[in-house]
Amino acid sequence: MSAREDIPSGDIWVVYDGQCPFCSSYVLLYRLRALAGLVHLIDARSDHPLVEAIRQHGYDLDAGMAVAFGGRIYWGAEAMNVLALLGSGSTIFNRLNRLLFRRIGLARLLYPILVRGRMLTLRLLGRGRIGKG
Fold first, then answer.
1. Angle at 107 between CA 105 and CA 109, to 5 degrees
2. What angle do CA 78, 44, 3 make, to 5 degrees?
3. Which of 18, 38, 50, 119 is the most buried (most CB within 10 A)?
């Protein structure tokens, strides 16, 4: 099997932490353009085959969300950037997201702050790391 056979090429697959209140709210609030295809939301704590494929490609889902789109994996700031570019401008939340993450440099600057906030929140809520319960 080639490295890319396990990555879907159609639709948009968003792999996020389902136990993180920020991550869950983000994927529920965010609206993607219909022209990008169907959007599949996958909890990174599930046994979905894409979760394992992303791990096998070397991505740490505790350190960043992942987006599979067009046969590629986008992780962390790049995932947020892709979602910003694919998002509609239909809501205030989407417009703010696009403003912050459409430029990859700004996305790379802001994303680690979001990850640290997520980790602190999970610790305060008594929730473990992905794959660790």
1. 70
2. 60
3. 50
> For residues 34 and 5, is the Cβ–Cβ distance under 8 A?
no
Neighbours of 95 (CB within 10 A): 13
Instruction: In whole angstroms, give the CA distance from residue 7 to residue 40.
Output: 13
Contact at 8 Å (CB) between 39 and 30? no
State how far the Cα of 19 lies from the Cα of 2, in Å rounded to an integer.
32
Type of residue at 57: H
CA distance 10 to 106: 28
pLDDT tens digits, 1-24: 234 556 777 788 999 999 999 988
CA–CA gap between residue 40 and residue 38 (Å, rounded): 7
Q: Supply 8's token pair.
A: 């879907």
Quote the pTM value: 0.86
Kind and range of the H or E run holding 29: helix 21-29
Question: Which DSSP letter does residue 64 get?
Answer: -
For residue range 99-124, what is the model confidence (pLDDT) as tens digits? 999 999 999 999 999 999 999 999 99
